[in-house]
Write a structure and sequence with these properties.
about 75% helix; mainly alpha; 15 helices
Length: about 375
């Protein structure tokens, strides 16, 4: 166990998650449901199976030896998380990367981090090492929980910064950067997305026996989480596949996967939500697949690094979710600055987001230190 290495891996996962939507901005003349599903095949099917097969031992045997209960709950919570992932893309469209992630991940961090050890009190068989009372009774546990609190406070400050920016910018300024900006609609979608996305933490907890079986099969510790990702992300794929296909049918966009020309009513579509200045009907098909594949693969790597980080956190693995959320907000805010989403906002908004990011960075250090102390006892 090396908690500081675990923090580093969680930062890499946060970088991947905070960056995944950027390649989608290069997609042109495809509807949201089309490029989301293409990227999803790489996120939820191709990458999990390829990397689990390459880096872990006997992935098929490991999964087949699981009890129906383990497989069901891992898959079920993955499917519930799929609703969060499904609406996460809509959150980016309505609120932008920095504000959207700040709000959605605030809910996600709080619920995904604290509920498993809280539920351990009432449901002792939940595969979490300790319940919240046991964690709080030790000095390392108190330090770790303090880091979680600092993280959640930092997320709240980051969300407050986004709200301040939204109130101070004119509609014209907002829509120069985020064409479909809609704070109320985005807030509702982000709330739902954040709550449902927290189910990923439950899915990983339910799938812990898969990781243990993988370790028993001789898989190095760092890669033992990869087989359970296959099951979790299959659940997420199910939800997203059904919804995207339904939208393809409803919006008559199913032809876009193979068409070299788009229908006139779809000619102005881009993944950033911006209308193109020309009515050119030609579809950059290779480019769209390339950008969607890159976005989907980047999305997967957040969980690839997450499972690596989780293996290094020991009994305080519940804090992994907090670290993951904090690092996502840090890097998504960085992209928000690069893409000028904060242009036109006041010094107060800039000061709040800077303070929020500083608190998130501090929280990762505190959590890493608390976990390190636990490992020495």
């Amino acid at each position: 166990m090396n908690p500081f290495l675990g923090v580093f891996f969680h930062w890499l996962g946060g970088l991947a998650s905070g960056s995944f939507y950027v390649p989608y901005r290069g997609v042109k003349k495809w509807s949201w449901e089309t490029y989301w599903l293409v990227g999803g095949f790489f996120s939820w099917i191709i990458c999990p199976w390829v990397l689990a097969s390459l880096l872990s031992n006997d992935v098929f045997g490991v999964i087949s030896r699981q009890s129906p209960s383990t497989l069901w709950w891992t898959y079920f919570f993955g499917a519930m998380w799929g609703f969060g992932g499904l609406t996460f893309g809509l959150t980016m469209r309505y609120l932008g990367m920095s504000l959207g992630m700040g709000v959605a991940l605030g809910y996600c961090a709080a619920l995904g981090t604290l509920l498993p050890p809280v539920f351990k009190i009432f449901f002792p068989k939940i595969p979490v090492a300790e319940n919240i009372m046991q964690i709080a009774s030790t000095t390392p546990g108190q330090i770790t929980l303090g880091g979680v609190f600092v993280c959640l406070l930092g997320i709240a400050v980051a969300a407050c910064a986004g709200l301040t920016k939204e109130r101070q910018m004119s509609e014209a300024e907002k829509k120069k950067v985020i064409t479909e900006f809609n704070f109320i609609k985005g807030l509702l979608v982000a709330t739902f997305s954040g709550i449902m996305s927290a189910c990923f933490s439950f899915a990983l907890t339910a799938g812990r026996p898969i990781g243990e079986t993988s370790a028993a099969a001789g898989t190095p510790t760092l890669w033992t989480g990869l087989p359970k990702l296959v099951v979790v992300l299959l659940g997420g794929f199910t939800t997203n596949f059904i919804w995207c296909v339904l939208l393809n049918i409803k919006n008559h966009t199913g032809y876009q996967y193979l068409a070299v020309e788009v229908r006139p009513e779809h000619a102005g579509l881009t993944a950033s939500g911006a209308a193109t200045a020309t009515a050119d009907l030609k579809v950059p098909l290779p480019g769209n697949y390339l950008f969607s594949a890159l976005a989907g693969t980047t999305w997967y790597f957040q969980f690839f690094f997450y499972t690596m980080g989780e293996t290094q956190m020991g009994k305080y693995g519940f804090a992994s979710w907090t670290l993951h959320m904090a690092s996502i907000i840090i890097f998504s805010t960085m992209w928000g600055w690069i893409l000028h989403e904060w242009k036109g906002s006041s010094k107060k908004a800039h000061g709040l987001i800077a303070a929020g990011i500083a608190m998130l960075i501090l929280s990762t250090i505190i959590i890493g230190y608390g976990t390190y102390l636990k490992g020495r006892h």
